[in-house]
Design brief:
4 helices, alpha+beta, 5-stranded mixed beta sheet, disordered N terminus, Immunoglobulin-like, single chain
Length: 318
């Protein structure tokens, strides 16, 4: 019985060697198996300063009756420039019919990626069998995921001259530059935080829509609004020398959808939306109203001019 087992072992060994040498051209031309890869989540959404991870399941299917392990390598063959993709294991060994879940880390390497723009990350999984000094061909496995960035909201308000002076019953204009530093289209509503007392005001336009900041551009998108004030005055001849502080509020709301991970997929967030997609910006101004106010001053001047004309005409008649 022992001799019979040894004989069978020798015959099997010789057959393996023959297949490695004599039949190697044929063996190299055939796929001995195939690699398979599949991600557990797609599409995947990342926050501006966040990161994420998913699992890439890699498996090996053999085409022939063999038990040789396969040497596996994971490569990233396609990836957007703003994303860094890092598998936790780039190379490892798999047995026939075995699978392994590999964690893949995702991280942003730039912060101004436009929200809602899905980009493709493509994985290529290769396998090799080394037998008798020859590398056996394994069909390459491929997988891809879609990756996007969640919207974030950020604006700034700029006023070239926040301190201005005027006289009673005069108009004073403050140009306000609103800049959108966010990565999605944003609607901005302007208002005063408090009533400015006897000062009258108008904001034009009161609501503006700003497109997102362009990726890689150091200058954000912007638009100019104006705050026009009319200084107060009394009902009689009076002197004014007053300062008025004015606080402007800009409420920015991002139009994009914000996604959160729910189990094995992403859904549009319905919770704390105001905290996620709303940003409040503020600017302060100081206006001084100084000078005399004479009610009906223009009318008095007109009447005076008419009286002067009448006097001149009377003198001519005399």
């Amino acid at each position: 019985m022992l001799r019979k087992s040894l004989t069978i072992g020798v015959i099997f060994g010789v057959a393996v060697l023959l297949s490695s040498s004599v039949l190697s051209p044929v063996a190299n031309a055939l796929d001995w198996g195939a690699m398979n890869a599949s991600p557990d989540i797609s599409p995947y959404y990342i926050d501006r300063y966040g990161s994420g991870s998913l699992t890439l399941t890699v498996s090996y299917s053999a085409f022939f009756f063999q038990y040789f392990p396969v040497w596996v390598e994971i490569n990233i063959v396609r990836c957007p420039s703003w994303l860094t993709v890092t598998p936790s294991q780039k190379t490892f060994v798999l047995q026939k019919g075995e699978s392994r879940g590999v964690k893949v880390a995702l991280a942003l390497n730039q912060q101004d990626v436009e929200a809602g723009d899905l980009q493709t990350v493509e994985f290529e999984v290769t396998g090799r069998i080394i037998l008798g000094g020859e590398v056996r061909q394994i069909a390459t496995g491929k997988a891809d995921i879609q990756v996007g960035v969640n919207p974030y909201t950020q604006i700034t308000l700029e006023i070239a001259k926040p301190i201005e002076r005027t006289a009673p019953d005069r108009e004073l204009t403050f140009p306000i530059t609103v800049k959108n530093w966010g990565n999605a289209q944003t609607t901005v509503t302007l208002s005063l935080t408090e009533d400015p007392g006897k000062w009258k005001y108008i904001i034009n336009p009161q609501q503006i829509i700003l497109p997102p900041k362009k990726p890689g551009d150091s200058n954000p998108t912007e638009q100019v609004a104006t705050l026009t004030l009319t200084s107060p005055h009394g009902t009689a001849i009076s002197y004014h020398n007053d300062w008025q502080g004015i606080a402007l509020q800009a409420v920015a709301r991002t139009d994009g959808k914000y996604y959160v991970l729910q189990g094995d997929h992403f859904e549009v967030s319905q919770q704390d939306k105001e905290k996620i997609t709303v940003f409040n910006g503020y600017a302060t101004m100081l206006a001084k109203n100084k000078g005399f106010y004479v009610p009906g001053f223009d009318s008095i001047m007109l009447i005076g001019a008419l009286l002067a004309i009448v006097l001149v005409m009377r003198r001519k008649k005399q």
